[in-house]
Amino acid sequence: MKILKVLAVLILVLLALVLFHDFWVGLTLQPIVEKQLTEAFAMPINIDGMKVRFWPSGRVYFKKIECFNPPEFKQKRHFEGEEVSIILDWEALKKKCIRIKRAHFKKFLFAVETYMTSRGTRTNTFIWYHNMGLDGDDDPAMNFPKHDAPSLDQAVAEASAKGKWRVMIDRLELDNGTFLFNDRRDSGQERQWIFEKLKGYWEGFDFVSGYTSPSFREYIRLEGTFGRHPPAKFRGEGKCQFADGNNFDIHTMIEGGSISEYSFLLAGLPGEVKGGVFDLRSKLLCAESDLKSEHILTLKAMRLGTPTVTQKLLKYPFGAVLMALETEKTIEIEVNVNGYIGDPKFYFFQAFTKAFQRALVRKARTILDDLRKGTTKVAAETPAQVRSGVGQIGNLLNTTFSTLNLSTLLGETNNDKHED
Question: Which domain, by its residues, includes 323?
């Protein structure tokens, strides 16, 4: 009987090991992984509910994984993932390659926060970026000359021989993502952009130390919402090559965005924004951090109040532009923004605002020119007793139109490097 009891216990133990193998292995490795990731990111990492299956699928599962910001940041978490499933290629490890066949995030938050210090800008993403050495130059021995660049296979072999690991992500999928950007660099105004309910994928990531792909081999596609009052429809997709740095060729679209919620982007408007919506279609091409972007901004049903104190300080023809805007229910404006995004002095949204101001004045000049021509035609075809009144309107438009001098009103200089 004792033998039967011992056998029964052994069978139960073996059964438990088989059935709960993923749990026990995950429980054993969880503190080790937490420690390694904390050291890698230089930020506290917390993992909950880790499971590992070595065979046959090579699956790693996290019920939750969190990365916490240092205390000087307002946002508590830098990123947070829930129900994260990762399929690894164990065989690739033998070839000094970390290959993720598929990564799936049921829910994910990524929050970028930046603020000014006495030494310059401090951003949470650059904490781990710097700690991992990603902002430093490769060993000169790992830089392959562009005129004699090896094939990908040759570069992989050379990197492996020098002890460098290859990192591949075949496909990353997202069900419900949130991207938050909180800009606190201007002490007078905190600015925030938020994308929610993001669903999509990113595929083709392949990093080899010292190697630069001659073409964009990655692809990304996301759709969701932008803003909250109300949430606007967002969609973006295109080719990219993030394995080699800031390289992408993507198209994005925002439909039904609230002008009131993001009025700081439209600081050039002649008055406080009381209502209205905007659509924004953008094409962004960036090669080695050199950005060239074209945007079509459509303003609809705008309601404007008196200029704010800040707006009154600007050299800007508010009365003229307001008159032009009030005559049009929908206005479409082309805005181009170019610059080197690797330059810490280049702020994309500030550059966008300045480019928008200039484009808006040009648009207003065109609208007022059409109004002036129309007024002159009406005056010529109107009975004499009405001409004097219409003529006064025409004189007003002529006076207003003549004041729209882009070079003086906006203080343009030949040194504007980040605007078109």
Answer: 259-420
Residue 322 to residue 24: CA distance in whole angstroms: 68
CA-CA distance, 50 to 110, in Å (whole number)? 20
If you count DSSP H runs as helices and E runs as strands, how many of each does the chain have, helices first?
Answer: 9, 13
The answer to the question of residue 194 being in a domain is yes
Q: Which of 248, 271, 286 is the last residue of a domain?
A: 248
Task: Count CB atoms within 10 A of the CB of residue 145.
Answer: 7
Q: Whole-angstrom Cα distance, residue 162 to residue 96?
A: 11
What is the per-residue pLDDT across 87-113, written as a single tens digit (0 to 9) for each? 999 888 888 898 999 999 999 999 999
> In Å, how far from its chain's centre is CA 377?
49
Whether 7 is covered by a domain: the verdict is no
Q: Is the peptide bond before 31 cis (omega within 30 degrees of 0)?
A: no
306 and 402, same structural domain? yes
**Residues of the chain scoring pLDDT < 50:** 6-7, 9, 12, 14-17, 19, 138, 140-144, 313, 375-420
Nearby residues of 267 by Cβ (< 8 Å), 6 or more positions away: 310, 311, 353, 357
Q: How far is CA 252 from CA 176, 350, 374, in A?
A: 19, 19, 37
- Phi, then psi, of 199 in degrees rounded to 5: -135, 135
CA angle 316, 321, 322 (to 5 degrees): 115
Of 219, 248, 277, the last residue of a domain is: 248
